[in-house]
């Protein structure tokens, strides 16, 4: 058995706090409870910050905020959460994911079997039609998960950051997520390649494993937020960062977080 911390990156967007609440709901209804849930937050605006903090209090989630006015930086939010956590195993995820009740138990089983592993999880992509009603959609009943299975499809296998688990000590060893990556794109691929440089085993909880174990994760549909210019910029950055630094990132003096 290992302690589990679920670390979530977040920046509030008006009218969408119900998606974050759905994530909290499903994490608080796991058959294997996490030691802690930590939200790393870089929301702008005191009203949004206060609203997010109150939601965290309702679901007993540790709220860690940093004042930051730049563009979205997923790496920064996850580093905030990781640094505040105390559990042996860290599960990094996003603020719009949903977790089947057995999911954390399956992740724990994989970590216990392969302690040095980096765990990736393949997510169901839910369709827009499933979210008619928005905040009124009930995500806790078995009927919802049947709909996910029936109407959703799996994301393409690859290095995706929807759920990314490893020993907490490893995140400290490599300096956490690289905060040079801004916006979305390639920060998770960079993590996977850094793990590969250390010959770290990678375990996929994919569609076959999920079918066998009866568990899954699902992404709450929203309009795409990718900026292709930023994705291309991050692709080039990934090569430069690996050539310059190798595995270790956010060295002293380059980040206030590591």
Describe this structure in words.
The chain has 258 residues and is an alpha/beta fold. The protein has one domain (4-245): Spore Coat Polysaccharide Biosynthesis Protein SpsA, Chain A (Alpha-Beta Complex). It is built from nine helices and eleven strands. The chain has helices at residues 17-27, 46-58, 74-84, 103-113, 142-151, 168-174, 187-197, 207-213, 228-245; strands at residues 4-10, 36-41, 62-65, 89-94, 97-99, 118-121, 124-125, 153-154, 163-167, 202-205, 217-219. The strands form two sheets. A seven-stranded mixed β-sheet has the order 3-2-1-4-9-6-10, sandwiched between helices. The longest helix has 18 residues, at 228-245. The protein starts with a strand and ends in a 13-residue tail after the last helix. The model has no long low-confidence stretch (mean pLDDT 86).
Proportion of β residues? 15-25%
CATH architecture: Alpha-Beta Complex
Q: Please give the CATH class.
A: Alpha Beta
Q: How many H/I helical runs?
A: 9
Average pLDDT: 86
- Termini separation comes to 28 Å
Shape: globular
CATH superfamily membership: Spore Coat Polysaccharide Biosynthesis Protein SpsA, Chain A
Order of helices and strands: EHEHEHEEHEEHEEHHEHEH
Number of E strands: 11
> What is the count of structural domains?
1
Radius of gyration: 17 Å
User: Which stretches of 5+ consecutive residues score pLDDT under 50?
Assistant: none
CATH topology: Spore Coat Polysaccharide Biosynthesis Protein SpsA, Chain A
Q: Main sheet, how many strands, which sense, barrel?
A: 7 strands, mixed
């Amino acid at each position: 058995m290992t302690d589990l911390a679920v670390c979530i990156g977040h920046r509030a967007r008006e009218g969408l706090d119900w998606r974050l609440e759905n994530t909290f709901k499903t994490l608080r209804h796991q058959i294997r409870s996490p030691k802690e849930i930590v939200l790393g937050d870089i929301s702008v605006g005191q009203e949004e910050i206060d609203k997010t903090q109150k939601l965290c209090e309702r679901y007993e989630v540790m709220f860690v905020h940093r004042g930051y006015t730049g563009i979205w930086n997923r790496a920064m939010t996850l580093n905030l959460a990781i640094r505040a956590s105390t559990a042996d195993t860290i599960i990094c995820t996003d603020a719009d994911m949903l977790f089947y009740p057995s999911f954390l138990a399956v992740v724990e089983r994989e970590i216990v079997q392969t302690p040095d592993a980096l765990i990736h999880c393949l997510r169901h992509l839910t369709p827009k039609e499933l979210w008619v009603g928005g905040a009124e959609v009930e995500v806790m009943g078995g009927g919802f998960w049947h709909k996910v299975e029936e109407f959703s499809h799996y994301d393409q296998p690859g290095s995706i950051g929807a759920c990314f688990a490893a020993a907490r000590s490893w995140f400290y060893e490599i300096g956490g997520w690289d905060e040079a990556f801004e916006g979305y794109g390639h920060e998770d691929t960079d993590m996977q390649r850094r793990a590969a440089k250390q010959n770290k085993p990678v375990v996929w909880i994919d569609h076959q494993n999920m079918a066998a174990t009866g568990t899954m994760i699902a992404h709450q549909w929203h309009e795409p937020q990718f900026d292709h210019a930023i994705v291309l910029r991050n692709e080039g950055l990934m090569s430069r960062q690996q050539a310059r630094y190798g595995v270790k990132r956010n060295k002293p003096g380059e980040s206030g977080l590591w």
